[in-house]
Amino acid sequence: MNFENIEIFDSVKRPVLIAGPCSAESEEQVMAVASALKEKGVALFRAGVWKPRTRPGCFEGVGQEALQWLQRVKSELGMYVSTEVATAVHVEQALAAGIDLLWIGARTTANPFAVQEIADALRGVDVPVLVKNPVNPDVDLWIGAFERLYNAGVKRLGAIHRGFSAYGEKFYRNAPQWQLPIEFRRRMGDIAMICDPSHIGGKRELVLSLSQQALDLNFDGLMIETHCNPVCALSDARQQVTPDELEIIMSKLVRRSAESDNVDFQSYRNRLDEIDDKLMELLVQRMAVSREIGAVKREKGLTVFQPFRYNKTIERYTKYCKDGKIDIEAVKSIFEAVHSESIRQQLRVVNEGNE
Ligand code: PEP
Ligand code: MN
After folding, report:
1. Confidence band of 302 (pLDDT split at 50, 70, 90)
2. What digits encode the pLDDT tens for the residues 317-347?
3. Which residues surround ligand 2, an ion (CB under 5 A)?
4. Residues 169 and 137 sit within 8 Å (Cβ to Cβ)
5. Considering only CA atoms, which residue is closest to atom 9 of ligand 1?
6. 7-252: which CATH number, 1.10.260.40, 3.20.20.70, 3.30.2350.10, 3.40.50.1820?
7. How far apart are CA 289 and CA 229, in angstroms?
8. Best mutation site among 161, 165, 196 for ligand 1, i.e. most ligand atoms within 8 A of its Cβ?
9. For ligand 1, what atom is nearest to the CA of residue 23?
């Protein structure tokens, strides 16, 4: 896929900032937030007109009527306006109202029928579309949505990382799982990637640190929910910031350069390569020992998985995690990977000749 730059973004300085309320609640509320943002130099306004809510009975957006308020923002304040679409009817109405940029919400990206319906409704229309990651951590499903849009002729595409829902997650509303947007980018190449710290954090206190992490990971921009009176917001009250708070957040963000041409990393990289070579050799040796154990388990008729032993391994390594030298969660995932390869090898050994 060959993505075209989103022109709107080209004319807006980086990092791109999309700000506005979770939902368009009333004409006054929309105009008040938009004017305050305009004053602070925000060029791209967001507001949800149709709101997909997890449970019925919550505020589900004003609907079509709110599009006129976005039109006012566009004509009176000269801002670009964006909203979420989830059906062909939404697309039709948003386009008829002259909305500059559409986004597909996380619940919609997870549904290929809905994405296809939107893609079909966009055939022959040149409008930029941002696709939020699906609620579940599935990079293929996210990429699939891009393919559906691209195949329908929509070439001005960008991605929004808004985190992934997880059972029992307490700290984040939607866990960032940064490795997923990184994997997405690795596979999709040069595509605009916006971070939505509001829906990841679910709390306004987390917006700054999540935004900083996104910039440190070379994201192209941020989408931050902003409301003049967040506590009274009809949706996502806990995570919205005021225009003044947004200004403070933006001023605190440290911007780093992705260009490394004038820095020589070669000697460091050579040292890393040397260590990685050793790690690989050791892993290969470790797998050979695992296969030997597999042979013993086969002979004695033992199961391959011995949970007691695995928990002991993790315990042994907590001592390396003092003073932040390496994070215990990282150690766990490294050993989960090593252990799962070990198990795969042993399963082969114990079943040799049985297939
Ligand atoms: C939103 O942007 O207000 C929204 C509903 O987000 P998400 O699709 O990420 O839940
Ligand atoms: Mn929201």
Report:
1. confident
2. 888 888 888 988 888 889 889 988 999 999 9
3. 22, 236
4. no
5. 106
6. 3.20.20.70
7. 62
8. 196
9. 3
> What is the position in ligand 1's atom list of the atom closest to the CA of 48?
3
CA distance 227 to 248: 15
Q: Is 199 in the pocket of ligand 1 (CB under 6 A)?
A: yes
Q: Which residues pair with 195 in a beta bridge?
A: 161, 222
The residues facing 129 across adjacent strands are 102, 157
Q: What is the pLDDT of residues 19-40, one digit of tens each?
A: 999 999 999 999 999 999 999 9
- Measured N-to-C along each axis, helices 328-351 and 307-317 cross at an angle, to the nearest 10 degrees, of 150
Residues 6+ apart with CB under 8 A from 27: 68, 69, 72
**Tokens read off for 292:** 């030997």
> Looking at ligand 1, which residue's alpha carbon is closest to its atom 4?
105
CB atoms < 10 A from the CB of 171, how many?
Answer: 9
Q: Take residue 16 and report the two structure tokens written for it.
A: 């791109």
Q: How confident is the model at residue 179 (pLDDT cuts 50, 70, 90)?
A: very high
Question: 264-350, which class in CATH?
Answer: mainly alpha
Boundaries of every domain in the chain: 7-252, 264-350
